[in-house]
Automatic annotation (TrEMBL):
The keyword Transmembrane helix applies. The keyword Transmembrane helix applies. It comes from the Eukaryota. SUPFAM superfamilies: Metallo-hydrolase/oxidoreductase. The chain crosses the membrane at residues 270-288. The lineage of its organism: Eukaryota, Apusozoa, Apusomonadida, Apusomonadidae, Thecamonas. Keywords: Membrane, Transmembrane, Transmembrane helix. This is Metallo-beta-lactamase domain-containing protein.
Length: 294
């Protein structure tokens, strides 16, 4: 195990402890982002908040990305919007509730990133049957898969038409995978500090476990943002969407910065400081053992 990964473990442990202390939060109600797009914020098993994105296509068909916890109120709210046609498991890390939603909506096709289907199916027991890139384009959703150096889990970027934003001009939204780019907010800390940071860009823990080549990651994300000048809503697996003419430029600025982030300046909580010290101690012990000091 690498020293970097070893040092990341206490952050995750502290996140789980925090979750055990504060408990599971129920899903939020669906909030409308555009005429055909909704967002639900749910609590992941690790304790952090994660987004479920709902997109309505062809007037009555729903595509669900990164489903939230299987709660009756959320099921009912989704059913009121249309017919669930596709459930997208966006990443090997966002699989917790996929099986429950697939059982609730057996007519839906369950898809995931093509290169990761076996991993998601066998390790996470989610019944994915097709690649997202083979199913979603027919519904008007473009899919681009990150190359392996940019994202080990081969997360995808989804781009689709939106309606009802303002002047009726054609515009589109872009969903940047699950963890590919995040927009953690203060209400999601201290977990945001523990496994990432508060702000916009590349999360710290994901940088270690999910992004083999940070330069390749930046190139891939920037290519997607620059290829779609009609995108004025950028969405994330964590954190609120960024809406408006400056949305792409804001994300471009974060991704292309030296650290891949625009980070909020906020003092770390005691729990975070404790976890960081524990991580440092753990890493020193790992190094000492590696060099046979004891
Ligand atoms: Fe995530």
């Amino acid at each position: 195990m690498s020293v970097a990964l070893t040092m990341a473990i206490p952050f995750v442990i502290a996140g789980v402890v925090k979750h055990k202390i504060t408990g599971h939060k129920p899903n939020t109600e669906l909030s409308q982002v555009a005429g055909n797009v909704w967002l639900c914020k749910g609590c992941a098993p690790l304790g952090c908040l994660a987004n479920m994105t709902v997109v309505r296509v062809n007037e009555n068909q729903l595509v669900l990305f990164s489903v939230a916890a299987a709660e009756d109120a959320t099921f009912a709210a989704v059913e009121a919007l249309g017919e669930v046609a596709v459930i997208v498991v966006t990443s090997e890390h966002h699989t917790s509730y996929g099986a429950a939603w697939a059982a609730r909506f057996p007519e839906a096709v369950v898809v995931g990133p093509g290169p990761m289907l076996d991993v998601i199916r066998e390790r996470e027991h989610v019944p994915v049957t097709a690649a997202a890139e083979d199913v979603l384009p027919a519904l008007g959703i473009d899919v681009v898969t990150a190359p392996e150096p940019a994202c080990k889990g081969r997360e995808q970027v989804y781009t689709f038409a939106i309606d009802g934003l303002d002047d009726g001009a054609a515009s589109r939204a872009m969903l940047l995978g699950s963890d590919l780019v995040v927009n953690w907010q203060a209400d999601e800390t201290p977990f945001a500090d523990l496994c990432g940071f508060e702000g916009l860009g590349r999360a710290r823990l994901f940088s270690v476990i999910g992004i083999p080549d940070h330069a390749a990651w930046a190139r891939f994300v920037l290519d997607q943002l620059e290829a779609h000048d009609d995108v004025d809503v950028v969405m994330f697996g964590h954190g609120p969407p960024i809406v408006g003419d400056d949305a792409r430029a804001t994300v471009v600025a974060a991704v292309s910065s030296p650290t891949g982030q625009i980070r909020a300046n906020r003092a770390s909580t005691f729990l975070v400081q404790f976890a960081m010290l524990a991580g440092l101690a753990w890493g020193c012990i790992a190094l000492a053992r590696r060099f046979g000091l004891f």
